[in-house]
Amino acid sequence: MIRVNCVGLGHWGPNLVRNFVGAPETCVGMVCDVSEQRLRLLRTNIPGVQGFSTDPQATVSDPQADAIVIATPVASHYELAKQALLAGKHVLVEKPLCHTTAQGRELIEIAEKAKKLLCVGHIFLFNNGVRAVRNLIRSGDLGRIHYACSVRTNLGPFRADVNALWDLASHDLSIFNFWFDAGPTSVTASGAAYLNSTVEDVVLASFSYPPKVLAHVHASWLNPRKVREITVVGEHKMVVWNDMDLNEPLRIYHKSVDIEREPVYSDTFGQFRMQIRHGEIVIPHVGGQEPLAVECRHFLDCVAGRAQPVNGARDALRVVAALEAADRSLREHSAIVPVADPCQPAAGGLA
Question: Are strands 145-155 and 186-192 parallel, antiparallel or unpaired?
Fold first, then answer.
């Protein structure tokens, strides 16, 4: 049996506990939250937990635990994950990995030295719709990718520890990196803080991916509708993934634009015509289990040595680097800011 301790019972923590309690090869040894009320609610609603604590440090250092799951505010990720790794535990920490790339590099070095897993809760890597789009891109069916546009909005929940980009767009960046097999090379971002003068609740950011792909993100807590949608425009086809549509999350549009040029070269507009091709709309079946259940089972498989992490810390660190660069662009009035790959040898010695 793999003994798992969980720290943090806010919005997402109870869902993690529920999935680990339901895993046949796992026992949830201890759950922790500084709120006694949250502990009482979990004790009532999710039976099967062996112990409860209000001490995060004791929970992550528990000598009986094999793995630690961290679902606390971002500011505490680094210290709790570091303590757990130094105590010889495998770690699954919610997204984003930490607040800075320097913290992330240190955590990766500690994990590799201790030969322990450091995984990050980028849950959409386990979403069958997201995986289906990746397969379409990799197969070449869409043709050369021109751009992608993500909208992730809702009215709340509002946070004070990170802005809307860190809270919401960390999902989209993990998806884009997964789809394009790379991190972004530059970003320009603009935003506004309407509800809290120190935290942007609305952010618009454009990330450039190699070879020439634009990925745009609209992240907002201040919107009348909950939207979770990404459009990918390719040379031959276009696809829309709508995470709010549980029955038909994927639509493939057989639409494209052909440019017909005259045989004699000319740089005038009149020398070419654009022809729009309208084709059918295909709605493929996308089934599968709850992504969080798949993520938790994958983590257990990795702990047991049956799999290699899809959501490893190095890929998660690239998300943190992109978010850091976007924050810098916000501070510098939407300047174009380069995004260095934090896992290259020049950046802290990581290969």
Answer: unpaired
CA–CA gap between residue 71 and residue 56 (Å, rounded): 11
Pairing relationship of beta strands 202-209 and 186-192 according to DSSP bridges? antiparallel
Give residue-wise pLDDT tens across range 194-224: 999 999 999 999 999 999 999 999 999 999 9
Reduced to 3 states (helix: H, G, I; strand: E, B; else coil), residue 169 is helix
- C-alpha 299/C-alpha 311 separation (Å) is 9
Query: Which value, to the nearest 10 degrees, does the dihedral of the CA atoms of residues 243, 245, 248, 249 take?
Result: -10
Q: Write down all domains in the chain, each with its CATH number in brackets.
A: 2-124+291-311 (3.40.50.720), 128-282 (3.30.360.10)
The answer to whether the Cα torsion of 178, 183, 186, 191 is positive or negative is positive
Per-residue pLDDT of 25-65, as tens digits, reads: 999 999 999 999 999 999 999 999 999 999 999 999 999 99
Tokens standing for residue 311: 């959501």
Q: What is the pTM of this model?
A: 0.92
Phi, psi of 13 (to 5 degrees): -55, -45
Nearest by Cα to 129 from 229, 289, 243: 243
Do 206 and 184 touch, CB atoms closer than 8 A? Answer: no
Residue in the block written with tokens 């260095």: 340
Residue with tokens 């295909």: 282
CA distances (Å), origin 102, targets 127, 153, 309, 344, 349: 29, 30, 22, 13, 11
Nearest CA to 16 out of 113, 116, 91 is that of: 91
Does the structure show a pLDDT above 60 at 311? Answer: yes
Average pLDDT over residues 75-95: 98
The C-alpha atoms of residue 195 and residue 156 are separated, in whole angstroms, by: 11
128-139 and 170-180 helices, crossing angle to 10°: 30
- Rounded CA gap, 148 and 173, in Å? 11
